[in-house]
Amino acid sequence: MAMHDGRVVAVGAPDEVLTEDLLAEVFALRARVRRDEETGSLVVIPLGR
Length: 49
Description:
This is Iron complex transport system ATP-binding protein. The protein is an alpha+beta fold. The protein contains two helices and four strands.
């Protein structure tokens, strides 16, 4: 789940919620979201604001 200004803006599994578009819209963060090949974990790579 992701919230912004006290309201829910996305619900689902991390790979469904943590998208590049959502990070830009909610947090004003330019970033790439990738899956680590070794661990399978999501990795957020900030590119700046």
